[in-house]
Amino acid sequence: MSASVNKVILIGRLGSDLTLVEIRSGNSTIKMAKGSIACTESYQDSRKEWKEVVDWINIRFYDKLAEKAIERLKKGNNIYVEGKLKS
Fold first, then answer.
1. 3-state SS of the chain: helix, strand, coil percent to 5?
2. Do residues 16 and 74 lie in contact, with contact meaning Cβ atoms separated by under 8 Å?
3. 3-class DSSP state of 85
4. H helices of 1-87, where?
5. What CA–CA distance (Å, rounded) separates 68 from 87?
6. Which of 19, 64, 72, 83 shows the greatest Cβ crowding within 10 Å of its Cβ?
7. C-beta of residue 79 within 8 angstroms of C-beta of residue 65
């Protein structure tokens, strides 16, 4: 038996206010809040000058968590997100 793990932790700034989307499938509706966060990495190059690289990562929250995220998270907030990657 082989083990596998799909877990990610992101810390960054929210790029914009989250957008709430309702997805209808048959008789059910799923709420989804989506947005992106900027994760910045700083490093020194070979000339000892500081550089920054920003990765923009799309994030999604579902159902009750989506509602809470929409209420509480605003553009520019520092946020900590723990979840899984999905492609």
1. 10, 55, 30
2. no
3. coil
4. 63-72
5. 24
6. 83
7. no
Nearest to 69, CA basis, from 15, 4, 12, 20: 20
Surface-to-core class of residue 57, CB atoms within 10 Å of its CB (0-12 exposed, 13-18 middle, 19+ buried): middle
Q: Are 54 and 60 in contact (CB under 8 A)?
A: no
For residues 58 and 37, what is the distance between their CA atoms, to the nearest angstrom? 7
Q: Which pair of structure tokens corresponds to residue 11?
A: 């810390």
pLDDT bracket for residue 51 (50, 70, 90): very high
The pTM (predicted TM-score) of the whole model is 0.81
